[in-house]
Structure formats: structure tokens, C-alpha cells
Design a protein that fits this description.
The structure is a single chain. The chain has six domains: about 1-220, Beta-Lactamase, CATH 3.30.450.20; about 240-355, Beta-Lactamase, CATH 3.30.450.20; about 375-475, Beta-Lactamase (2-Layer Sandwich), CATH 3.30.450.20; about 480-555; about 565-720, Heat Shock Protein 90 (2-Layer Sandwich), CATH 3.30.565.10; about 745-785. The chain is α+β, with helices and mostly antiparallel strands. Helix 1 (about 1-40) runs antiparallel to helix 5 (about 140-165), helix 1 packs parallel to helix 6 (about 165-185) and helix 18 (about 475-525) runs parallel beside helix 25 (about 750-765). A hairpin with a 4-residue loop joins strand 13 (about 375-380) and strand 14 (about 385-390). The radius of gyration is 62 Å and the shape is rod-shaped.
Length: about 775
Amino acid sequence: TVVTLTSIANFMLTRHQVTSLYQLTEQILASAIGYSIREALSADIDDDNVRQIQQLLGRFRQNEDSLEYLYITRGSGHTVFAHSFVGGFPAYLSQQSHEHRQDVSAQPSRYQADNGVIYEYTEPLAQGRGYFLHIGLNRTRLSDLLASNRRDELLLGVFVILAGVLVAYGWSRRITRPLAQFTRQVNNLGETGSLTLDNFEYGATEIRTLANAFQTVLKDRRQAMEALAEREENLAITLDCIGDAVVATDSEGRVTRMNPVAEQLTGWTLEEARGKSINEIFPIVDASTRETIENPVEKVIATGETVYLSNHTTLIARDGSEYQIADSAAPIRNQHGEILGMVLVFNDVTEQYRLRQAVIVSERRYQTLASVSPVGIFYTDADGACQYVNERWCEITGLSKEQALGSGWADALHKDDVQRVYEAWGLAAKQRQPFKLEYRFQQGDRTRWVLGQAQAEYDDEGEVAGYVGTITDITDRRQAEQTVRRAQKMDALGKLTGGIAHDYNNMLGVIVGYTDLLQNRLEAAGQNSLLEYTRKIKRAGERGANLTRKLLAFSRRDVSESRRLDINSQLQETRQMLEKTLTARIRLEMQLQPSLWPVWLDAGDLEDAVVNMCINAMHAIDGNGVITLTTENVVISEADNRLHKLPAGEYVTLSISDTGSGMDEETREKIFEPFFTTKQDMGTGLGLSQVYGFVTRSGGEIHVYSEPGHGSRFILYFPRLVDGHSETRLLQHDAQPVTDGSETVLVVDDEPDLLDLVCEVLDEHGYHTLRANDARAALALLEQHPV
């Protein structure tokens, strides 16, 4: 009886232990599932990756028969975040959605489903985030397992009754020892992170089933953790291999991750920086003003947009070192677009910044040099398209910078020089030699001579990348050279004509003198028929003498007969003579400014110049035409001095313009040269050279404006005669006949014929003459004969 009671007691105890085991198993299974899912889904919950979460819940559900369902709620408990149901969330749970509990310490909820009684356990996920895991365990399935085992338990009870206390004791030990061992393994799961069942002594089938379920859950958990670890490792390797610095923060701007480059630049290690504000780890200022710059993380979090900082950002490292950085910041969003944090990417551009600043300083310096340079500077690409010109270039050419760019500079080339410039440029490029050429730019009536020089720039492959060059204004130099050449020619011509005129004048003196003697003797002899011959000879001699005076004036060996002159009055006096000279096909017009200032000129030279130039203009006109004489008072300022080559002051201008055929540049440069003519045998080439000599002797200047097909215009500038000018006049004496006398006269001349003539005339009038060919002979005679 005692054995029976003991056996029954042991049987009841065993039943009670088995029932308690079911409840404990459910609780342990729920806790284990919650722990595994919590670890496996941590990252996916942060990313709100619902799809990935539901797949993992489905795998947990399939691997455990007693597990009816899994689902996750968040917020107030009324929102289902994810679940393991394939056919949708069941109605018996939807109808009682208000009962989704979040109290993990309360008794499990009980639901009656078609396939049995469900006990629902609640486990927290993502502590403090409001996520809860609901685990539905099918108690009916567990009971079926219990019922299937009751027969074994009854036989076991009979066997226990028969076997006695020993068998009951052995059974008790078989049940409780594996359970205790399993309980210890589960209790150590949180510390070790693993469950080792290789040497586990399985007891009842339920314990074996429970152990297998745990093993499966742990396997899934381990795989999820390994995948998560692999992903973390790949991310860490990627960040470590990136050449740029990378810093990640949470949504509140606290540092969560840094790569080695970021550690180096900021001076903070990840362990030191983790959890600190990005403002403390990443202080930045403006490189120019040194003012603090708003941290890009704050902008990203505030606006949700990617932010880029300027190129003048300076990072101040932990040790005070400064780096010029270029950076950008972008938000990290989950699947629902919510900002979870921020990633900041930046790199050290200190060297590039230094080089860029050096380039800026260098460019500023060269811009200053170019702006103050006395020569024009230009740069073209390899095709000759202009990319840059300085201010001086624009001053010389008359073009603006906008007009010069591209091919605009070539449009300002003088039409006669375009082909020459292109040929010289092409030859220099072909031979890889510097370009050097004198050519002209023309804007309207303004023509400037320049000396152009350029050198090619080559790229790394040796190809021409562009040309850098200069132009120097040589207009003044060329005009000076032309003036010097003209003056040299005029001087040479003057010396020649002066010598000829002197000798010619001596011969004319002999001719005219003997003609007078012959004329006197013919009159005395009554040879009146021959007197007319002597008169013609004398007129021809006088004309020759007049020509010699002009030649001497040309050579500046004659004294000018300049006087105060009104050009308007002089032109009016010569108008009738000019109109007859120009013939009826030429209409003469005069546009004379009233109250014209007086000038100091030789009236005869002025008349000769006007007649000469009008005749030249007439020859340049085919058919009918117009010649216009214009006078004007002008004032030349210091600014105009560069153009006119005259001192600043007041001048009177006389311009002669015609409607003739005009002249090209080459002809214009030569018209004042002696003996240059375009009239073939009809001209001597001395007319305009005499005009040039007259104007320059008068302290003036002459300008010529002409183009083929557009006529010509000559402008003569004469200085204004100021008040108080001393008019020096030559005393004019009328020729007086020689009177008789008896004195002794010493006559000295190196021309024998002229010496004989003078002595003969004096002898006829009673004078006693002494003659000498030179000064030495004259002095010797004076010592011998008192005079």
C-alpha cells in the first residue's frame, strides 16, 4: 500500500511536473524566440525594413510546429508593424486588436482558433522604441503531444507501482535531471550567446522537442547574426578603404562612426568621438574671415537636403592644426523617408587650396602688370582666336575687349596688311619660330603701326596650345623715321640745288650784265633792230634769276620774305588765277572761316603751295570734279600732341580736298619725297616736296588723308601769329644806275667772267679797278695800292 501510494504520489507529482513543464517551456520558448528575434532584427527595425522582418518571422514560424504565429506592433499597440501570416492577418486577432497587450509581466492572452487554443506571449523589441513581439503558441498541439504520451505515462505508472520506489525514483530522476540541465543551459544563453546540446541527456519527448526548437531558433539567430556581422565588416572595410574622411551621426548629430581618414584629420579616435556632438568633433571656420561656419550636419537635419560647403572652409583639428577641406553632408533615411542620421564626407585640399591661392595671387599680379604695361598684350588659342587682350592693346588698336575676342582682332587689320600678317603667322607656326612683324591696325581714319611679336605655347604632347604676344605702337617711330628720311632727302636735294643755283646765278649774272652792256652800246650805235634781241635775252636771264631764287629758298640758302599774313585775303586774291588754271571742268569752292587768325608766312611761298596742290588735285580728277579750300582756327591740346606732333597751342589750318581717285597707303608715304611722281613724264616730283619744305620752314605741319576711290585731303597747319610779334622786314632797294667817278675800286670774285664784267662796267664810268680772284690776292693788292 505504501508503495502504491508512493507510486501514485510520484505519478501525480510527475503529471504536475509535466504540466508545469509545459507552462515553463512556453515561457522559455517565448523568451528565447524574443531574444533571438530581437538580436536578428535590430538593424532592420532601425531601417524600417518591413520586408526583411516579415521574411525572418516566416522562417521562425516554419521551423517550429507549436509556434502558431509571430507579429510585431509599435506605438500605442494598435498598429501591426510586421507579421508571419501568409494569408493575411487573422480575423480573431483583428477583432481583438484593442487587446494587443504591451505588458510583458502579465499572464498570456488566450485565443480560440480553428486549429486549437492559442496562448500569446509578449516580448519587448528595441528597448525604448515602442516595438513589441507577439508570440502565439498552440497549446492544443502541445496537449496532443501530452495526450499521446499519457499511455506511456500510464504504463510507466504500472511499471512504477510494480517496480516500486526504485523505479519511481529512477523515473523522477529521468524527468527532472534533463530539465534542470536544460534550464541551466537556457539561463546561461544570455551570457554565452549559444546553446550546446551535443552532450545533452534528453528526457521526455517534450523536452527533446523543446530542445530541438531551441536549437533551430538559435541556428537561425546565428545565421542572422553572421549575416549582420558580415555586413558590418564589409561596411567597415569599405569605410576604411575610402580615401575621403567619413563621419556618421544619429538624428541628433552625435557621432556614431568614423573612418581612419576622419580620425587623422579631426584628431579624434572613434572611441573618443562616439556619442559626442559633431560640432565638437568637426569645428569649421571661414578661411578668409575666420568666422565660425554653421555645421553642415545641422543644415542637413534641418532641411533634409544634401549640403555642400564652399572652398574656403577650414577645419580646426583637436590639436589646433588647420586643414582646408571640401565637404558635403547628406541625410540617412529609412524606408519611410524618416531621417535616421547623417553622413559627412570631406577631404584635405590644403595643398590644392594653397596652389589655387598662389594661382590667384599670380593671376592678380600678372593682371596688374598687364594693365600697366606700355605694350599691348594678347593671348590666342591654337587656331588664332583671341582669348585675352589688355587695356593697352585696346588703346593702340581702337577696339574694345569684346570686339577683339575671337576673330574680331583680325577685322581691325589694315586691308593691305591682312594677307601679309596671316602668311607671316603661318610661317612662324610651321617653323616653330617666334612671330615678329610690323603691320597696321585701322579704325576709320585712324591708322596705327605696330610691332607684333608672339611666341607659341606647347602642351605636354608638344602640340601648340596657344600664342602669347605683344604689340608695340611704333607709329611715332615710323613717322619720325619717315620725317628723318624725308629731311635727309630734302637736305641732300637742298645742297645739290643750292650749289647748282649758286653757279647758275653766277652764269646768269654774266649773261644779264653783258646783255646790259651790249644793249647800251647798241643804243649808242643806233642799232635799234638788234635791241629787241637783247631785251629777250635779258628777260630770259631775269626768269632764270627768279628760278635761282626759288631754288635757293628750297635749299634754305635764301632769306624768307615772311610777313604778317591773312590766309583768307591771300586766297581771295589768287582765286581768279586758280579758276583759270583749273579749267572749266573743275569747280573751285572756298569755305573760309571769318575772323581767321593771322599767321607769319611768305605770301609767295603760300601762293606757290596752293597752286601746286590744286594742280595736283586737278590731275587726280577724271572728268568733272570739285576742289575745296577750307580755313579754320584750331586749338591743339596736350592730348592731341601725340597725333599732330606739334606743340600744344593755337593754329590756323588750310585744307585742300578733292573728289579725285585718291591714293593708297604706299603712295601716301612717298608723296613728299623729292622726284617722286605718279604723272610719268608730266611731273618733276618736286612740287609737293617744295610744299613740305615751305610748311616745315614755317613751323607748321601737313597731314594727308586719302583712300583709293574717295579723293584726297591735305591739311596744312600754321602757328597763329601772336600779338607783339616782331615783323622783320628786309630793306628793299630799287636798282640804281652806276654814276661816274674816279675812285679806285677793288673787285673780288672767284668767277672770272663775272669779275671781268664788273670791272668793265666800272672802267666805263671812270673808275680805276683792281681785281682779285680770292681774299689773299685782294689783301696783297691792298698792301700795294691804297684804296
